[in-house]
């Protein structure tokens, strides 16, 4: 761990020297400032882990400096006030402003060290608490400290300032939808809705009502395009749209309006379009499967989500994130990934990207026992899938089975994968994979797959 960095602010040279020597002996890194102006400069150039602040100083007193820091916000470090002749009121005022504690001069060195240690521990617990709270929330911003993820978030924040259509390209499960939501949350449309439209829906003729709404004898029901007014319309997997759906979408984008089913009046749209694709759209266009006009409208601004194997240094952080996530949200027992297991997983191919990692953690917490997760367990749950180098040289396990079992095994994996992708919704799954809903229910039951359904879960 890096040494904690303490800033000592006092106008008396003897106190500065004494306190800094004692703290340095204890292993702290210390900087000293002789007045408030210097303290401000130090704080600007590097945030301290703790500040010892004298109350009485000739130019500007410590309470004023503390008050300024607190008003500006973002004071992540504890502040311990020191004074030889402060009144009770001053001490109370400093505590009210947010000082951690108060030390009287002449300083007792034992008390000084104890108070500093306690303050550091308090700050550490506070940070840990904030970190845990952040982790239990659903993913609201792409996680990962790698250069690739830093760059992605930075580009996303920049693109959030524009209103032009945006195309997110990336492998399945690499976080395109999370990124789209992040961009929405950073944009001026953040208070507007985020409407997620599976393209399976667009391809489905009977879903026009869901998309465009309906007018019947003066009774109006608003479709998703209208619901997206003032916000973002997210089109998942645009490359999967059939020609009819492409032409409907193109017409909406070109005219910036549409007509409700059964209606006659053009209704204006106002949304930012964010589309996602796992297939290179240019290839789809060249192959004649994607309309060039739509391609040019969609691909003006493009952002790529990296595959997990391209930022594998984030794997340990993601594993820990999802352990905390499932422990707190699903009350699963806590288990830990020892470093050798983390290292193994850093070199794993992650064909299903973040979705695969999340599922792996969940399964290990459900299936396993014991605080430490072992390498053998991980390999068993991964089905001994290949590590990065030999990804193509292996065939799936079901290749070795009789054809009926192989088909069931494939269908089960395939349906579970897509069901998870659509949050367990059979309606969306049916649209996306083009299997009629009644038939799909039968299949899910026959394969013993659990599902949920909603009335209009598009
Ligand atoms: N940066 C991230 N950190 C942690 N989890 C993430 C991150 N990005 C996405 N996830 C999680 O990974 C899963 C897949 O993410 P998401 O649905 O955004 O991917 P996608 O690329 O849109 O997938 P698909 O193309 O299959 O629809 C989700 O459970 C999501 O919460």
From TrEMBL:
Q: Which residues carry this modification: 4-aspartylphosphate?
A: 54
Keywords from the named record:
ATP-binding, Nucleotide-binding, Phosphoprotein, Transcription, Transcription regulation, Two-component regulatory system
In terms of PROSITE patterns, this protein maps to: RESPONSE_REGULATORY, SIGMA54_INTERACT_4
According to the entry, every stretch annotated as the Sigma-54 factor interaction domain falls at 142-366
Which ranges form a coiled coil? none
Could you tell me which Pfam families the record lists for this protein? AAA_lid_14, Response_reg, Sigma54_activat
Q: Where is the Response regulatory domain?
A: 5-120
Domain of life, source organism: Bacteria
Q: Which GO terms describe its biological process?
A: phosphorelay signal transduction system; regulation of DNA-templated transcription
GO MF, one term, reads: ATP binding
The record, for PANTHER family, names: TRANSCRIPTIONAL REGULATOR (NTRC FAMILY), TRANSCRIPTIONAL REGULATORY PROTEIN
Indicate what this protein is called per its UniProt record.
Answer: Sigma-54-dependent Fis family transcriptional regulator
Species per Swiss-Prot/TrEMBL record: Candidatus Methylospira mobilis
Instruction: Cite the source lineage.
Output: Bacteria, Pseudomonadati, Pseudomonadota, Gammaproteobacteria, Methylococcales
């Amino acid at each position: 761990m890096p040494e904690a960095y303490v800033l000592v602010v006092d106008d008396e040279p003897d106190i500065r020297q004494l306190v800094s020597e004692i703290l340095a002996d204890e292993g702290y890194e210390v900087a000293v400032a002789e007045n408030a102006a210097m303290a401000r400069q130090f704080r600007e150039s590097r945030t301290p882990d703790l500040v010892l602040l004298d109350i009485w100083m000739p130019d500007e007193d410590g309470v004023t400096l503390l008050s300024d820091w607190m008003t500006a916000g973002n004071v992540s470090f504890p502040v311990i006030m020191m004074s030889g002749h402060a009144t009770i009121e001053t001490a109370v005022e400093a505590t009210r402003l947010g000082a951690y504690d108060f030390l009287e001069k002449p300083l007792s060195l034992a008390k000084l060290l104890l108070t500093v240690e306690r303050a550091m521990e308090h700050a550490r617990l506070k940070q840990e608490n904030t970190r845990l709270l952040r982790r239990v929330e659903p993913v609201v911003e792409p996680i990962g400290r790698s250069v690739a993820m830093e760059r992605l978030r930075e580009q996303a924040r920049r693109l959030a300032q524009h209103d032009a259509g945006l195309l997110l390209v990336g492998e399945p499960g690499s976080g395109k939808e999370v990124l789209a939501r992040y961009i929405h949350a950073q944009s001026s449309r953040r208070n507007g809705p985020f409407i997620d439209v599976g393209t399976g829906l667009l391809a489905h003729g009977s879903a026009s009502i869901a998309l465009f709404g309906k007018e019947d004898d003066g009774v109006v029901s608003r479709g998703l395009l209208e619901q997206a007014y003032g916000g973002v319309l997210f089109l998942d997997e645009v490359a999967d749209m059939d020609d009819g759906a492409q032409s409907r979408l193109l017409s909406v984008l070109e005219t910036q309006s549409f007509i409700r089913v059964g209606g006659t009046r053009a209704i204006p749209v106002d949304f930012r379009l964010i589309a996602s694709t796992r297939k290179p759209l240019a290839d789809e266009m060249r192959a004649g499967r994607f309309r060039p006009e739509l391609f040019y409208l969609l691909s003006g601004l493009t952002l790529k989500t990296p595959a997990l194997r391209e930022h594998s240094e984030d794997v340990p952080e993601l594993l820990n994130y999802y352990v905390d996530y499932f422990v707190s949200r699903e009350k699963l027992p806590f288990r830990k990934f020892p470093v050798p297991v983390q290292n193994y997983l850093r070199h794993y191919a992650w064909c299903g990207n973040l979705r695969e990692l999340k599922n792996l953690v969940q399964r290990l917490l459900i299936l396993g026992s014991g605080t430490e997760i072992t390498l053998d367990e991980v390999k068993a749950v991964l089905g001994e899938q290949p590590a990065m180098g030999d990804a193509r040289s292996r065939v799936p396990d079901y290749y070795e089975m009789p054809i009926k079992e192989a088909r069931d095994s494939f269908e089960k994996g395939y349906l579970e994968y897509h069901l998870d992708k659509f949050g367990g919704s059979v309606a969306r799954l049916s649209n996306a994979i083009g299997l009629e809903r009644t038939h799909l229910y039968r299949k899910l039951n026959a394969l013993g797959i659990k599902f949920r359904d909603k009335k209009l879960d598009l």
